[in-house]
């Protein structure tokens, strides 16, 4: 088990392990499989997903602009007929993931947005 309480079988990649280590500095974070990716949970709240080695935080419309200002977009996936855009989850900028102070702030907002 990692320090975040996740077994190796729950980790889809080294990236997921890295993300969990970064986030676990602020809260205990657990992971579970989620539609071909990984859901990240803290305090019984699913606040993030990792899909194809990309971290997405839960975002409500009032906080979406901070992601757009960093050039980030929503989680998208392809179906047979179209591209689906999931506006509830936006990509976390890599510079935020690497900056502990910024990451803490963004994670707090993602947790609050996930509660709504």
Short description:
The chain is α+β, with helices and mostly antiparallel strands. Helix content is about 35%, strand content about 30%.
Give a description of the structure.
Strand 5 (74-78) and strand 6 form a beta hairpin. With 116 residues, this protein is α+β, with helices and mostly antiparallel strands. The protein has one domain: Yope Regulator, Chain: A (2-Layer Sandwich). Helices cover 33% and strands 32% of the residues. It has a six-stranded antiparallel β-sheet with strand order 1-2-3-4-6-5. It has helices spanning 14-24, 64-69, 94-98, 100-115, and strands spanning 30-34, 37-42, 45-51, 54-58, 74-78, 83-91. The radius of gyration is 14 Å and the shape is globular. The model is unreliable at 1-10 (pLDDT under 50).
Give the low-confidence spans: 1-10
Q: List the helices and strands in order.
A: HEEEEHEEHH
Number of strands: 6
Judging from the principal axes of the Cα atoms, what is the shape? globular
What profile does the largest beta sheet have? 6 strands, antiparallel
- Roughly what fraction of the amino acids lie in strands? 25-35%
Strand-pairing-aware structural class: alpha+beta
CATH hierarchy class name: Alpha Beta
Radius of gyration: 14 Å
Q: Estimate percent helicity.
A: 25-40%
Total of domains = 1
End-to-end span in angstroms?
31 Å
Overall CATH architecture: 2-Layer Sandwich
Corresponding CATH superfamily:
YgaC/TfoX-N like chaperone
Q: How many helices?
A: 4
Strand order of the largest sheet: 1-2-3-4-6-5
Supply the key terms.
116 residues, alpha+beta, Yope Regulator, Chain: A, six-stranded antiparallel beta sheet, 4 helices, 33% helix, disordered N terminus
